[in-house]
């Protein structure tokens, strides 16, 4: 799953016998290196990510991996580094009137955790797709229906949530997939520092990030040839 067309286009190009899956979200069924997969372009934002998770689960997804770009939050992370989410919060959730902490959706857990085995596979695959390149780390991903470009807000995300990256879909996928009981993982390539300092040529950077997404998808399905469960959603 990816939010923007540019983030999933190269993976779609590699699908054999691609077929659209009817539903509210752009979902394609096809074969990637001999493995049946579903590929979704969710659209931007938490509602779209939730709809996509439900659509993919309904279509039979055994697991979901979300890939795409995000803003860096943790100190020391640079443009081009990759963050694999090991904890997810919705930074724009405010249930303080009910006694809940900032970032917790009322009635939901304070955070969501991904599937450990799948996340480990994504981490290993992320390190293989760009050997000797940028850093690949695990960390908290903060999501909200806001595009963050304020250094003060970045510092708040870092101090309040110990966030490594900020984007607009991951934690909503985490919430939906947890309810749907579908294992999930999220990999984000950092396109900017979320404070106005972005890749100097964003279209060129997005093209490079899309190529890394493509390599990541191929690395993930390669491991399924020896697995008894040959289903995966990249």
TrEMBL record:
Any one GO molecular function term: methylthioadenosine nucleosidase activity
Top-level taxonomic group: Bacteria
EC number: 3.2.2.9
GO biological process, one term: nucleoside catabolic process
Keywords: Amino-acid biosynthesis, Hydrolase, Methionine biosynthesis
One GO CC term on file: cytosol
Protein's recorded name: adenosylhomocysteine nucleosidase
